[in-house]
Specification:
About 30% of the residues lie in helices and about 25% in strands. The chain is an alpha/beta fold. The longest helix has 20 residues.
Length: about 375
C-alpha cells in the first residue's frame, strides 16, 4: 500500500501528501480539516462544499500559506484533479460514504471515511475488498480511540490494574431535548441517521477494541423527542467471547449525565465522568501544535480506581486526536497498517446491524461469526 503519486511529480518522502476533503460541515470543518492541517507530511489541497458560507470559511481557515487551497462545488471537481491528490477524506453525509469511497478507490486514490463507513457490514466488506485489490488504503475515522479517558483505560487494562474485567459500561449522553433537524435526525433509512449509527459507532468500536469479538447483541432503541424521526435513546448489551459484558448507552435526552466509563473487574473498578475535551477545543478554534499541551483536562476531572475500601484518583492521559492522521500519513508513506482498518469498521457494523434487528424484534441476536475487535 503506497501513496498515490500525481502524474509528472517526482514525489519524495519529504513532499507533503495532498489531501482532498469532501464535506465542510461539522465533521469536515471541526475535525478533519484542522487535524489534517496539523499533521506533518499532509497538506490540505482541496475542499468540496457547495455552501457559499462554508466555501468562504474554508478559505479563511486554510487558504493561507505557500500552497493555495482549491475549493470546488462538488465531488466531480475534486475527481477531475485526482492526479494532483494523494488521499481523499470523506466528511460528507452518511448516505454518500459508499458511492464516494468506491469512486475514489476506482480513481486510484486512498480513502479515509468518517464513521460509519457504510450502512451495512456487507457494503464495508465490498469496499475493503476493492481497496485490497487496488492496493490502496481504506481507513475509518474513529477518533474516540484517542479520547483521553479511553487511552487511560487502555493503560489500566494493560497494567492489569482492574484484575479480570467482567463488565464494561460506557455512556455517550447529551441533553438536547429539542431536535436540530437535518439528515442525522431523519427517519429515512437511506440517510443512515440516528444515534445508533452516530454515537453508537463510537461506543461499539471502543468496546470491540478493548474486549474483542462479540457473540450476542441485545438492544433497546427509541424515538423519545417530539418531532424526532430517528432513534435518540438507545441501549446495547454485548456479550464478548471472553465473557466480558459491555453495556452501552447513547442518548440525546439525558438530563443528568451518567459516568462516561464504569468498568468493573475482579480487583478494582474504574469510574470516569465527563467527555474528552478535544472536540470542545476544536469547536472553539483551538488547534494542536507540536510541542504544546493538547487534550489535557483539569486534575479535578480525573477518574477513580479502586474499591469502596481503597480508592484513588487516576490522572487522565492527554487525548491525542492528531495521532489518527499521523498514522494515516505513516501508512501512506511506509505501507504500514492504517490506524483503523475497514475490517474493524465492518465488525462494528455487524454489531450495529444486530442491535437494530434486536430492537425491532425484541430479542437477543446471536452472531454466527463473532464480530471481531482490533
Amino acid at each position: 500500500m503506497t501513496a498515490h503519486v500525481p502524474d509528472g511529480d517526482s514525489t519524495t518522502s519529504d513532499r507533503p501528501l495532498r489531501v482532498g476533503l469532501i464535506g465542510y460541515g461539522l465533521a469536515g470543518s471541526v475535525f478533519h480539516a484542522p487535524l489534517i492541517a496539523a499533521t506533518e507530511g499532509l497538506l490540505l489541497d482541496t475542499v468540496v462544499t457547495s455552501d457559499p458560507a462554508r466555501r468562504q470559511q474554508a478559505v479563511d481557515e486554510h487558504g493561507g500559506g505557500d500552497h493555495p487551497l482549491t475549493v470546488v462545488d462538488g465531488p466531480d471537481g475534486l475527481f477531475a484533479r485526482a492526479d494532483q491528490l494523494d488521499l481523499v477524506v470523506l466528511a460528507s453525509p452518511n448516505r454518500t460514504h459508499v458511492p464516494l469511497a468506491r469512486r475514489a478507490l476506482e480513481s486510484g486514490l486512498p480513502v479515509v471515511v468518517d464513521k460509519p463507513l457504510a450502512g451495512t457490514a456487507a457494503e464495508a466488506d465490498q469496499l475493503a475488498a476493492l481497496a485490497d485489490a487496488r492496493g490502496l488504503l481504506l481507513s475509518v475515522f474513529q477518533n474516540r480511540r484517542w479520547d483521553n479517558d479511553f487511552l487511560t483505560l487502555r493503560r489500566l487494562l494493560d497494567e492489569g490494574a482492574l484484575g479480570r474485567v467482567h463488565r464494561f459500561e460506557s455512556r455517550f449522553e447529551r441533553w438536547r431535548p429539542q431536535p436540530k433537524g437535518g439528515w442525522r435526525e431523519s427517519g429515512d433509512p437511506a440517510e443512515i441517521g440516528g444515534l445508533l449509527y452516530d454515537l453508537g459507532s463510537h461506543v461499539v468500536d471502543q468496546a470491540l477494541t478493548l474486549f474483542g469479538p462479540v457473540t450476542s447483541v441485545y438492544a433497546e432503541s427509541d424515538v423519545r423527542r417530539a418531532g424526532a424521526a430517528a432513534d435518540d435513546d438507545t441501549f446495547l448489551a454485548l456479550t464478548h467471547t471472553d465473557g466480558v459484558r459491555s453495556h452501552l448507552w447513547v442518548s440525546a435526552l439525558a438530563a443528568e449525565l451518567g459516568p462516561r466509563f464504569r468498568v468493573l473487574g475482579s480487583e478494582a473498578a474504574y469510574v470516569k465522568y465527563g467527555l474528552d475535551p478535544q472536540e470542545a477545543a476544536l469547536r472553539a478554534g483551538e488547534r494542536p501544535v507540536p510541542g504544546a499541551a493538547w487534550g489535557t483536562e483539569p486534575a479535578a476531572a480525573a477518574g477513580t480506581l479502586g474499591t469502596p475500601d481503597a480508592e484513588r484518583a487516576v490522572p487522565t492521559l492527554p487525548g491525542d486526536y492528531p495521532a489518527y492522521y499521523a498514522g494515516v500519513a505513516a501508512a501512506l508513506r511506509d505501507g504500514t497498517a492504517p490506524p483503523v482498518t475497514a475490517g474493524e469498521a465492518a465488525a462494528a457494523l455487524r454489531v450495529l446491524e444486530a442491535a437494530r434487528r434486536s430492537a425491532a424484534e425484541g430479542r437477543t441476536v446471536r452472531l454466527d461469526t463473532p464480530a471481531a475487535g482490533a
